Amino acid sequence: MDYIKINKQAWDKRTTVHVDSTFYDVDAFKKGKTSLNLLELEQVGNVKGKKLLHLQCHFGQDTLSWAREGATVTGVDLSSQAIEQAEQLKQSLGLKAEFIAKDIYQFGRENTDSFDVVFTSYGVLCWLPDLTDWAKTIASALKQGGEFHLVEFHSFNDLIDGYSYFPQAEPDVEKEGTYTENCDGEKSTTVTWAHSLSEVINALIQAGLNIEYFKEYAYSPYNCIEGMEYVSGQGYQMLHKGQQIPLLYSIKASKPTRK
Ligand SMILES: C[S@@+](CC[C@H](N)C(=O)[O-])C[C@H]1O[C@@H](n2cnc3c(N)ncnc32)[C@H](O)[C@@H]1O
User: Fold this and answer.
1) Which of 55, 85, 216, 228 could form a disulfide with 236 if both were Cys (CB 3.0 to 4.6 A apart)?
2) Which residue, judged by its Cα, is nearest atom 20 of ligand 1?
3) pLDDT at residue number 181
4) Which pLDDT score is estimated for 224?
5) Proportion of the chain above pLDDT 70, given as a percent
6) Which helix (H) or strand (E) holds 198?
7) How close is the Cα of 241 to the center of ligand 1, in Å?
8) Which atom of ligand 1 is least distant from the CA of 106?
């Protein structure tokens, strides 16, 4: 099964829907609103003058938001449609960025550049079959002392949605709609993989990165599970038997400096 081809088709189709959605609110972004949430802005911190690689950058709003924060940015995404949209956004706003339409594993094999920061967020890992190679791609793209920042939907949510929490031999192959409000029942085939938290953390450790911290959050900026409720000043939460479930997690890891 050519999962790259299948997922690329799905994301090309989704991109066209996403750029017109209120979820992504391109108009507000064009007027100067950042697409980044406080969580990742605080986690990554000051990026002025830093070289930042954004993996799975979709149509580039977060990448360009990091550019607005002062970083020199490179965004990589499988979807050529998403990268085309990112280029258009960049040009219309007169921002600087390099966008690369490529599978991240292929990018990892070919990349010779090195970065101060590698960033990736919200809905990225399920599209990747192999976290060992993913983590190697990150480690080899980082300068010594460079930082990796991940903010991801908590794997516990997979369980709530009826998927496996633990990695499986075979991926989930489904016909799915997308997550923006304007998707109109349009579906495309997707191929996704379950990744437990220990799998993510161990892949980064085995790639030689130092885990600086791992955090879990009960609130999410995104209303993406049925039954979520908004708590003023916090974001969306989800209760199970009256208790909050974990919705997001974040990891900061660094590449050791050679002695
Ligand atoms: C949920 S989106 C990323 C979310 C991002 N935070 C956003 O909302 O802008 C997932 C992205 O991963 C990309 N993707 C999926 N598989 C990939 C692969 N093998 N290599 C590179 N990008 C991939 C998709 O094209 C899509 O743009």
Assistant:
1) 228
2) 103
3) 83
4) 82
5) 100
6) helix 197-206
7) 33
8) 20
Residues 6+ apart with CB under 8 A from 237: 218, 219, 220, 228, 229, 231, 244, 247
Q: Residues lining ligand 1, CB < 6 A?
A: 7, 11, 56, 58, 62, 77-79, 82, 103-104, 121-124, 127
Residue with CA at minimum distance from ligand 1 atom 9? 58
* DSSP bridge partners of 121: 151
- Give distance in angstroms: CA of 192 to centre of ligand 1: 12
pLDDT at 212: 98
Tell me how far apart the alpha carbons of residues 138 and 117 are, in angstroms, rounded to a whole number. Answer: 10
Residue 78 alpha carbon to ligand 1 centre in Å: 7
Q: Whose CA is nearest to atom 12 of ligand 1?
A: 56
Q: What are the structure tokens assigned to 197, written together?
A: 């938290």
pLDDT band per the 50, 70, 90 thresholds, residue 52: very high
Cα-trace Rg, the chain: 18
> Which candidate, 128, 108, 133, 122, places its Cα nearest to that of 53?
108
Cα 251 → chain centroid: 12
The token pair that represents 259 in the structure block: 């002695």
Measured CA to CA, the distance from residue 35 to residue 27 in angstroms comes to 11
C-alpha to C-alpha distance for 209 and 72, rounded to whole angstroms: 23
Most informative mutation of 3, 24, 56 for ligand 1 (most atoms within 8 A of CB)? 56
Q: Is the pTM for the entire model greater than 0.85?
A: yes
Average pLDDT over residues 191-203: 97
Residue 240 has pLDDT above 80, yes or no: yes
Ligand 1 atom nearest the C-alpha of 62 is 9
pLDDT band, very low/low/confident/very high, at 129 (cuts 50, 70, 90): very high
Cα of 6 vs centre of ligand 1, distance in Å, is 13
